[in-house]
């Protein structure tokens, strides 16, 4: 009859006189069924929350427990917690919470078997006829809630296991402290009554030990509990939300106790492990044994914002290690934590040892290869040889000194070009803004062919009638710049950095034989002053935004002012804006980029904007579109991987213009060479990924149908 209406007629035939109901098995039913009342929970079970237990049981040192109190009257605030003696633990039922239910006493079988013999005691599988189901609770709404979750219905037969399952369903609502099923023998079967004791009404919530968790987070998750009957399910959800905040912030933590006092004050205890002593230990890079280091400890500790005495242990410690390694130029850094034997205020303390391996202090190196600038200029100038001297960790302050000499063949076959670069770098000058400083001296020689080369009949200018006649002139022209200055750089905001520099520059022009040259083949001046060299004192400010992840974007704003400190110095103002954005979809990448600029004041031709070439409008030679005081260039490139991490294929379209400013450049070199001043190009290419960056091979066609190959290392758009 399990699950089906019981036969009342058969029950009358079994006990027509009622005598057997008074003396037989029904008495044992009542005795065993009433034992269900003994399963009332003694208070509520203890909670040991298993929420993200930290691996090394680090605990919070007392900087004074932070107590956040939620009250029905004020909502949230700070105040004293109830004493531990006056509170009792709360048993929470739900994901991540430990719940142990006491076994419910079995109900003995009642009635007789069909042959009139009593049923054997302890048989939980025998169905019991339930004549009625009642719910006894102070709050009618809670009684109705319990009624809605149970499956037992009157006039049906159920086993003890079915009754136990319904008791569990009532407990699972999270609103009841005790559920006591009681049975009364009746003529028609067993009358079942659930005596319900509701959880206390929450008057306040106190959170101890949570120095990192903001009050606003506590308020948002706990305030809905105030003034209502404690719902342990909602309590579990609230604890999980607080745990999510800790996980998002990468803060180690553990909820170790939850209790409620007689007057309805919930008290939660959180351990936020803290760091004790921090020690720096230097490791020999060869023997891997402790040794004496060169770096002053103060220049290491300043990077450890999350690894310091009293700080809460968190995964952000790895950020300190990365910052220390990258900024200070150390070879390797790692941290070891050890737990103290004696806890502080009931919480363990973690001591930290920062193991530091320094790089080689100084040395020489040499090498050779292909320069990106040389690839753009073509010929043997792409080859470069270099010799370097470096000195790291000057004065134990993580400062670096480098000196480099570069030699490259001259495209004209003359003397090789020799460039010297000296630099002293301090990665952090010690201010609160993480400002770095670089003092430098550079010399660099650059070809003037994109601006001052002789015009030759090509597909791009063969129909231009006003190409000027060129004289013999030099074979090749170069501008050599010697620049010295100081540069400061610092982060400004999320993804933003700022740069401020002051430089002194002397530039002079020469031919392929390293002889000073003041005019090109069209007798146009090469320097603005008309002297052998131009001198400028420049102040530059640059702001860079680099978006990562989904927002993979770049924005560079540069403003440069040449200040005439002396009468022979130049004066000009230059503004350049560059922007780039990538979009990813279905394995393909669309990159859209644009740049533009303007120069006001004294403009030497070698400082004019060059339009055309691999880093501008492809399909044209370097500077083939024009040379101007103003310019704007746009580019779109769609790429797909041909072989993952090896080759990419792409198509592109570029367009650019000098905004009719070519005639404003001294000598009008663009007009003399018949450059159009504006144009576009399109084509396709393959990029091969290498350790030094992508090497690009491209074929582009200009708007006039002329094709051109481009080859380069990356693309500096």
Protein architecture, described:
- It is a single chain.
- This protein is 14% helix and 40% strand.
- It has a 16-stranded antiparallel β-sheet with strand order 14-15-16-17-18-19-20-21-22-23-24-27-28-29-30-31.
- A hairpin with a 6-residue loop joins strand 10 and strand 11 (290-291).
- Helix 6 (215-222) packs antiparallel against helix 7.
- The protein is elongated.
Note the main attributes of this structure.
disordered N terminus; five-stranded mixed sheet; mainly beta; 717 residues; 31 strands; 16-stranded antiparallel sheet; single chain
**Unreliable segments (pLDDT under 50, ≥5 consecutive)?**
1-86, 91-122
End-to-end separation in angstroms reads 84 Å
Tally of strands: 31
Supply the helix-strand structural class: mainly beta
Shape: elongated
Q: With helices defined by DSSP (H or I, 4 residues minimum), what is the helix count?
A: 12
- The largest beta-sheet arranges its strands as 14-15-16-17-18-19-20-21-22-23-24-27-28-29-30-31
Mean pLDDT: 79
Strand content: 35-45%
Radius of gyration: 42 Å
The helicity comes to 10-25%
Biggest β-sheet description: 16 strands, antiparallel
């Amino acid at each position: 009859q399990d699950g089906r209406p019981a036969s009342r007629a058969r029950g009358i035939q079994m006990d027509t006189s009622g005598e057997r109901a008074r003396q037989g098995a029904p008495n044992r039913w009542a005795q065993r069924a009433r034992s269900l009342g003994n399963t009332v929970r003694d208070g509520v079970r203890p909670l040991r929350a298993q929420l993200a237990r930290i691996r090394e049981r680090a605990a919070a040192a007392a900087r004074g427990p932070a107590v956040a109190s939620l009250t029905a009257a004020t909502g949230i605030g700070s105040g004293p917690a109830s004493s531990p003696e006056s509170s009792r633990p709360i048993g929470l039922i739900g994901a991540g919470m430990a719940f142990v239910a006491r076994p419910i006493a079995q109900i003995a079988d009642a009635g007789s078997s069909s042959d009139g013999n009593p049923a054997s005691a302890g048989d939980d599988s025998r169905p019991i006829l339930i004549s009625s189901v009642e719910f006894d609770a102070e709050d009618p709404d809670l009684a109705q809630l319990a009624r809605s979750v149970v499956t037992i219905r009157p006039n049906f037969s159920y086993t003890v296991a079915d009754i136990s399952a319904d008791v569990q369903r009532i407990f699972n609502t999270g609103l009841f402290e005790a559920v006591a099923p009681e049975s009364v023998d009746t003529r028609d079967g067993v009358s079942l009554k659930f005596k319900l004791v509701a959880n206390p009404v929450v008057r306040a919530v106190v959170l101890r030990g949570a120095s990192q968790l903001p009050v606003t987070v506590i308020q948002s998750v706990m305030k809905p509990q105030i003034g209502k009957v404690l719902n342990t399910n909602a309590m579990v959800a609230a604890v999980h939300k607080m745990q999510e905040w800790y996980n998002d912030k990468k803060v180690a933590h553990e909820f170790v106790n939850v209790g409620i006092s007689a007057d309805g004050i919930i008290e939660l205890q959180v351990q936020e492990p803290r760091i004790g002593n921090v020690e720096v230990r230097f490791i020999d890079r060869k023997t891997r044994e402790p040794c004496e280091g060169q770096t002053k400890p103060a220049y290491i500790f300043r990077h450890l914002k999350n690894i310091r005495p009293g700080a809460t242990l968190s995964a952000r410690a790895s950020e300190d290690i990365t910052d220390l390694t990258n900024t200070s130029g150390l070879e390797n850094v790692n941290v070891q934590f050890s737990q103290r034997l004696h806890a502080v205020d009931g919480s363990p303390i973690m001591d930290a040892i920062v193991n530091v391996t320094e790089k080689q202090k100084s040395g020489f190196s040499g090498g050779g290869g292909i320069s990106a600038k040389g690839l753009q200029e073509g010929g043997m100038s792409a080859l470069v040889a270099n010799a370097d001297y470096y000195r790291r960790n000057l004065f134990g302050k993580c400062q670096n000194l480098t000196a480099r000499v570069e030699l490259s063949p001259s495209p004209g076959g003359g003397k090789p070009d020799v460039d010297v670069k000296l630099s002293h770098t301090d990665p952090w000058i010690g201010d609160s803004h993480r400002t770095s400083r670089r003092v430098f001296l550079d010399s660099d020689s650059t070809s003037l062919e994109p601006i001052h080369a002789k015009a030759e009949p090509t597909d791009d200018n063969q129909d231009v009638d006003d190409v000027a006649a060129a004289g013999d002139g030099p074979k090749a022209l170069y501008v050599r710049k010697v620049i010295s200055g100081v540069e400061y750089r610092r982060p400004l905001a999320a993804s933003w950095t700022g740069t401020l520099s002051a430089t002194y520059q002397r530039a002079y022009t020469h031919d392929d034989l390293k002889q000073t040259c003041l005019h090109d083949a069209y007798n146009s001046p090469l320097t603005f002053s008309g002297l052998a060299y131009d001198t400028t004192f420049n102040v530059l400010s640059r702001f860079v935004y680099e978006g990562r992840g989904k927002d993979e974007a770049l924005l560079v704003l540069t403003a440069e002012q040449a200040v005439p400190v002396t009468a022979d110095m130049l004066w000009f103002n230059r503004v350049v804006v560059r922007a780039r954005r990538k979009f990813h979809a279905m394995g393909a990448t669309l990159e859209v980029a644009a740049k533009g600029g303007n120069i006001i004041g004294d403009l030497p031709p070698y400082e004019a904007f060059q339009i055309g070439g691999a880093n501008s409008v492809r399909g044209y030679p370097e500077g083939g579109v024009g040379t101007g005081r103003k310019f704007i260039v746009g580019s779109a490139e769609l790429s797909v991987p041909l072989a993952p991490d090896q080759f990419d294929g792409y198509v592109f379209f570029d367009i650019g213009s000098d905004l009719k400013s070519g005639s404003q450049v001294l000598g009008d070199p663009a007009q003399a060479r018949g450059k159009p001043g504006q144009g576009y190009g399109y084509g396709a290419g393959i990029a091969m990924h290498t350790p030094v960056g992508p090497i690009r091979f491209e074929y582009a066609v200009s708007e006039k149908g002329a094709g051109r190959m481009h080859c380069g290392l990356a693309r500096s758009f």
